[in-house]
Every structure is written in C-alpha cells, then in structure tokens.
UniProtKB/TrEMBL annotation:
Keywords, alphabetical: DNA-binding, Transcription, Transcription regulation
Provenance organism: Eoetvoesiella caeni
GO cellular component terms, semicolon-separated: protein-DNA complex
Domain LysR substrate-binding: from-to ranges: 1-185
Family: Belongs to the LysR transcriptional regulatory family.
InterPro entries according to UniProt: LysR_subst-bd
GO MF entries: DNA binding; DNA-binding transcription factor activity
The protein, known as: LysR substrate binding domain-containing protein
PANTHER family: HCA OPERON TRANSCRIPTIONAL ACTIVATOR HCAR (PTHR30346:SF0), TRANSCRIPTIONAL DUAL REGULATOR HCAR-RELATED (PTHR30346)
Length: 203
C-alpha cells in the first residue's frame, strides 16, 4: 500500500486520495452507495454489482517467537502448528483474512487452540514477540514487522496463498479510477510492466 500511494502521488499529484479503514460489509455498502470509489479486501464474496479483481498475493506463513520449539522446522507441519496456542485475526475486523486462514486450518483433523483474536496485525506481532502464541499472516507482513523476537517460517508442503482483491463497482467508467487500477496491478507486475485495461471516458 505505501508503494501504491507513493506511485499515485508521483504520477497524478493533483488527484486527492483518502484512505479509510472499515469492515468488509461497510466497504461493500460504501461502494454501492457511492461513498467509495475502490476498496481492498481479502474476500471476493461481495455480492452483485461489485467486481472483485485479484491483485496481490502473499504466502501464508507462521510468526514464531524466538527460541520456540517449532523453530527446529525449516517448514512447519500444520499438525505440529496446531499443538500450540494461536493468535488469529478477529473475523469481524478482518473478515476475508480470517476466512482464508480458517480454510487452511480446516485441512487438519485437529481443532486449533485459539488463545486470542485481534483486530490488528501489529497486536498479533506484539503477542507473538512476547511468546504468548503463534501467529498466521502474510510472509511479507511478518518479515517487515518491527517487533523483536519474531521469526517467519513457511508451512510444510505447498504454501497457502493469501489473496487481496480490489473491489469496484461493475458499472465504473471513470478514467481516473482505471488509471488507479493500472497502478495497483503494476505494483506486482514483473519489471514494472503494466497490463492494458480498457479505458472509457468519464461520465
């Protein structure tokens, strides 16, 4: 997100961008009510009239406290992970993220030991750093955490992928919005190559 906002400021400084942090349901309502132009979510269950385009992906990794027994594994087996308490995102605050993590946890026959549910990634990392529990989040988020004593480890086997979707009204025709979407896609495009999107005149 910081890279995207910096790119927008560089290429179209005259366009004001305001960022709001709201729940998925509020975001969908805001898009339908013309309160927001675009949104980001980790769910594509958005109902009729809203398009959900997969734009970013990040492997789901484990945030492990330093000196934890699981650090003997280079890649942590899911069954081993579930033997320890977990701190997970709250389903109300992080609905899409929580749904994607829940699907991964359901692959095992064991019930997870959920020690805490939190509304922010920063609090999750603070609890992991304190040795309170293990966390599950995107690899890039864990690696960029400023909390000391947090080690990132992938899950064993093929790493599950967390997908971020760009939400927009299906009837959107603004050239400015489509240029914004091009920049979103450019953040993850190899060598900065931007995909071509059909542009329609502003109405």
């Amino acid at each position: 997100m910081p890279s995207l906002l910096a790119l927008c400021r560089e290429e179209e400084p005259e366009v004001e961008i305001r960022v709001f942090e709201v729940s998925l349901s509020q975001q969908i309502k805001g898009l339908n009510d013309d309160l927001y132009y675009v949104g980001f979510a980790q769910s594509d269950q958005v109902g009729e009239g809203i398009a959900a385009d997969a734009v970013w992906s990040d492997p789901l990794w484990v945030a492990v406290p330093a000196r934890h027994p699981l650090l003997k594994h280079k890649r942590i087996p899911l069954d081993e992970l579930l033997r320890y308490p977990l701190v997970l995102c709250d389903p109300q605050a992080c609905e899409g993220h929580a749904q994607q993590v829940e699907r991964v946890l359901r692959r095992a026959d064991m019930e997870p030991l959920i020690a805490e549910r939190v509304a922010s990634f920063d609090l999750m990392m603070a609890l992991v750093s304190a040795g309170f529990a293990l966390g599950l989040a995107g690899a890039s988020h864990i690696k960029s955490s400023r909390e000391p004593g947090v080690v990132a480890r992938p899950l064993a086997g093929r790493s599950p992928i967390l997908t971020t979707y760009l939400l927009r009204r299906e009837a959107e025709t603004s050239v400015t919005i489509f240029r914004f979407i091009e920049r979103v896609r450019a953040i993850e495009s190899p060598e900065g190559v931007r995909p071509t999107l059909p542009l329609e005149p502003d109405t």
